[in-house]
Write a structure and sequence with these properties.
It contains eight helices and 14 strands. With 327 residues, the chain is of the alpha/beta class.
């Protein structure tokens, strides 16, 4: 029996119902009420000698797969003239494409505003709608917190914007950010931001379906507060400590790309096809698997304490789960 929009939203946001009964579609995006998204993260054009080939392979696959849109989750490239061919390749894609800014996208002293303008983003953080779902893109590079190194914080103004966005939409929400909200290497005030995402806003609000991030160059999914936090592995490599440096490509490539010996590269580029099934109330990830170029990180001396084998692997795992579960 067809149900009202109010009944759908209540069921979408109630985990037990989501697990036991199918969800009627809030809005349809193609056959079956499915939204398909091509996701790639951490290409690191400024580290890799073959970044443009990795991006090209992803875009060719997306032309064949024809998702509703594509997104890159940060650590893409610096806004430099030398990277114009890389950006031109992205911009030549015929469908909609969205950017998230990562911490390395401002390397070399660039300001966030310069990167945002060069990418053609509407802002450092922004929202857009597709197929009855609200997508919120966050900037995890705000100054703040007590940690050293790169900024990885969400400041008060952005947090207030996020809270207002979630309050003002009744649609299911998908959050995309570079630094994760569920990992020690991620956003410093992640507990505070997760509390905003997990807030009970009433039965008319569908709530947050999933959070997608990059940054860690790992392969995992965490459930926190009923929300799936899905890490999209790097398209290119795992960064290794100084004792594990090794040349695994030809001499010229290492000469022209001095950080290349800091990484354990993936032979083939990684990306994912994400599907939001509004009828079934599920989110799924269809990933790719590759292999290491040269010795694996542990044979090169990387400690398993910082590089767990079940997460640091040259793959993005397939995964499927309900949009919400009991916390």
């Amino acid at each position: 029996m067809k149900q009202s929009r109010r009944q759908f939203i209540a069921r979408f946001s109630t985990a037990a119902a989501a697990l036991s009964l199918p969800l009627p579609a809030l809005a349809r995006a193609g056959a079956g009420g499915k939204i398909r998204i091509g996701m790639i993260s951490d290409v690191h054009q400024d580290v890799m000698h073959d970044g443009i080939k990795r991006l090209g392979a992803f875009l060719d696959a997306m032309r064949e797969a024809k998702p509703d849109f594509i997104v890159q989750l940060g650590d893409f490239c610096k806004p430099t003239d030398s990277n114009k061919p890389f950006m031109d390749l992205w911009n030549a894609y015929e469908g909609p494409g969205y950017h998230v800014i990562g911490n390395h996208d401002m390397d070399g002293g660039f300001r966030r505003e310069q990167t945002v303008e060069w990418y053609g983003m509407p802002g450092r953080y922004y929202g857009f709608d597709h197929g009855g779902v609200r997508f919120l893109v966050l900037d995890g590079n705000d100054p703040g917190g007590t940690r050293g190194g790169y900024n990885r914080f969400i400041a008060e103004d952005q947090e207030a914007w996020l809270d207002a966005e979630l309050q003002n939409t009744k649609a299911p929400v998908v959050v995309m950010i570079h630094q994760p909200l569920d990992h020690d290497w991620g956003v410093v005030n992640r507990d505070e931001i997760r509390a905003v995402l997990e807030k009970d806003r009433g039965p008319d609000h569908a709530g947050v379906a999933a959070v997608f991030s990059g940054h860690c160059h790992q392969d995992y999914v965490n459930r926190i507060g009923g929300i799936a936090h899905i890490q999209i592995n790097s398209a290119s490599y795992v960064w290794l400590p100084g004792n594990a440096r090794m040349n695994v490509y030809d001499e010229e490539s290492h000469k022209n790309h001095p950080y290349l010996n800091h990484v354990a590269p993936y032979r083939d580029p990684l990306w994912a096809m994400v599907t939001l099934d509004l009828d079934a109330g599920t989110v799924s990830v269809e990933g790719r698997a590759s292999e290491w170029v040269g010795p694996d990180p542990w044979d090169r001396g990387a400690p398993e304490s910082n590089y767990p084998r079940d997460k640091n692997r040259p793959a993005i795992s397939d995964w499927q789960g309900p949009v919400r579960e009991p916390s």
